[in-house]
Amino acid sequence: MFKATASSSRPTARPRRARQAALMLGALSLPLLIAACSPQNAQGTLNRVVSTSGLTVKYDQRYGPETRNVLDVYSPEGVTNAPVVLFIHGGSWEGGDKEGHKFAGESLARAGYVTGVMNYRLAPTNRYPSYVQDAAAALKWMRDNAKAVGGNPDNLFVVGHSAGGFNAVEAVDNERWLREAGVPISSVRGVIGIAGPYSYDFRDFPSARAFPVGGNPDDIMPDRHVRKDAPPHLLLVAENDSVVYPMNAVNMEAALKAAGIPVTRNVIPRVNHVTIMAAVARPLTFLGNTRQQAIDFIEKYRVR
Question: Which of 136, 138, 159, 156 is nearest to 147 (CA)?
Fold first, then answer.
């Protein structure tokens, strides 16, 4: 223990520096921990270093009748008329949950946004389009309850990682889902897909379990049915992604451009399929600029 002496002009300097050094060492070691752990353990490690102090968090808000139809809402304290963001986790449509993505809710709320982090029905018990319908229903709940949690119901954004990126893009771009959920397309200002599989033949992969038996990619993939009035898109690609091939975003970008939809596709250097999402967490923004690109996109297209 540090003990102050008569010659110590700043008796708290060393402990403060020690704490700062410990925090920096912890932050620098997080990428190694994430690389060494399973995605679930990595998320748990990451969530333990973020705090929701100063935020208002409402847990397990029910947006539908199914067991997994729940979401958590993270709001800056005292905020009014803020943009509303719905975040959708990944997990090959068969795993993942909102509890593992506390860091995403915290990070986006610190940026000034009312943020919902949702669960959805999982495959193989629940196949397409159940999880897309859940995304639309959750967005409906966020819009209906936006004012109560400090948000603007006509300033909605949808963000998804991996399978959640598919859900986000499909829920908004296919005219059917928002219409059936009762969400005006004009209220959705933008979509952010992070390493999402928007354009592939699922029949060749284990993820076929998430889609109907006998299903055809032409009837399911988001790049095959982009609505003409879809909102702007940001498609973020991990340079070292060995899980979702970059061509998914290339094809999605082409489909959006063909429909006249504003779209930006950016490749983030040095990150992989996991760390592109980890970089959303405030302690790990040095991994890549995922968080800042998302914020810049929301700020560009939000209602003022």
Answer: 156
Domain membership flag for residue 23? no
Range of the domain at 290: 52-301
User: Distance between CA 89 and CA 102 in Å, rounded?
Assistant: 11
Residue 178 structure tokens:
């928002």
pTM, entire model: 0.88
Instruction: Say if residue 129 is preceded by a cis peptide, omega within 30 of 0.
Output: yes
Arithmetic mean of pLDDT, 170-186: 98
**Among candidate residues 220, 84, 98, 94, the one with its CA nearest the CA of residue 152:** 84
Number of separate domains in the chain:
1
Please report the DSSP string for 44-82 in residue order. HHHHHT---TTEEEEEEEE-SSSTT-EEEEEEETT--SE
Contact of 217 with 174, CB cutoff 8 Å = no
Distance between CA atoms of residues 283 and 46, nearest Å: 9
Residue 17 is assigned to a structural domain of this protein: no
